[in-house]
Amino acid sequence: MQQHPSLQPYADLQWKAPSGAGAPPGLKVTFLGVSTVLLDDGETALMTDGFFSRPGKLQTFLGQVEPDMQAITQGLQRAGFPGGVGKLAAVIPVHSHYDHAMDAPEVARRTGALLLGSESTANVGRGAGLAESQIRVARLGEPQQFGRFTVTLYPSRHAPTGFTGGEITAPLRPPVRASEYKEGQSYALHMAHGGRTLLIVGSAGFEPGALRGVHAEVVLQGTGALGPRPESYRDALWSEVIAAVGARRVIPIHWDDFWQPPGQPMVPMPPPLDDFDASMTYLRDRGAREGVDVRLPLEWQAMDVWGGLPVRR
C-alpha cells in the first residue's frame, strides 16, 4: 500500500498549462484533489466537497477522524479564499463519505457559502454546528441558480465497495469513526454557464438511465475503485455517463491517494485498493476509439476545460 503507480506512462494525457503567467480568462475549473473541484467565473464560485483534511491511513482505519482546521485554512488559502467570506456561493458534497463531506460544513462556515446536498450531508452540517440557514437539502433534478451558474443534481451511485450505502440519520458530531460517514444520496452534478456544460461525477458509479436527455461537453469522472471492476462494468459506466451525455472530453478525478498529507503532490491510489493503470488504460483506449479526449487534470491550477475541443460536425 506504499507503492504508488507512476503518472509517467500517461504523460501524453497530462493537461498542458498555457504558456505565460496567470489563470485562463473566463470560466475556470480547478481540481483540488479527490473530488473537490472549484468552479469560478470571477464573480461567483462553487465547490464540490471541499475536502482538505486528508487524515492518514492509521487514523482512518484504526482511530477517529475530524476536520483538520489548519489543513482547511491552508486549502482555502491555496484555492483563493484567504479572507474567509467571499464569492463562494455553495459547497456541494457529491455524497457523504468523510473524504467528501467531512470538511464541507467548516468550509461553508468560513466562506458564508451554502451547504447543499443530501439529508445525510445536512446531518453532517448539523453535527458541526452549522446554522440551519446555511443548509439546504437538494431536490433531484431541480435546477438551482448561483450567479450565472445553473446547477442540477441527478441521482448517481457510489462504486461498489465495502463502504457503499447507508444514511446518516442524526447530526454527526466528530471525532467519529470514518465508517460513520455513510454515503447517503450520491449525485452527478450538472453545471451550465454561458453555453458551456460540465458534469462532475465523484465516484465510479452510476444510476442506470438517470442521465438520459442530459448533455455535457466535459465530464469530470471519478475513477476511484474503477480499476478492479470487470470490463463489463467499465463499459456500463462509459455508456451510462460519458456516452449518455455526449461528452467530448473526460477528465479523471478521485484517483489520488487521499491519505497523502495535505500539500503533497498528488499520487495515484496504491494497490490493492485500486488499479490506476487499468482505469487509465481503459479510458485512453476507449476515448481513442470513440473520439473522446481524455486528459489528466492539472493540480491546483485553473483550467479552461473546454479549450481546444474539436468542433463536432
Automatic annotation (TrEMBL):
Task: Cite the Metallo-beta-lactamase domain residue spans from the record.
Answer: 33-254
Q: Which domain of life is it from?
A: Bacteria
Pfam families in the record = Lactamase_B
InterPro entries given in the database record:
Metallo-B-lactamas (IPR001279), RibonucZ/Hydroxyglut_hydro (IPR036866), UPF0173_UPF0282_UlaG_hydrolase (IPR050114)
What is the protein name for this chain?
Metallo-beta-lactamase domain-containing protein
At the highest ranks, the source species' classification is:
Bacteria, Pseudomonadati, Pseudomonadota, Betaproteobacteria, Burkholderiales
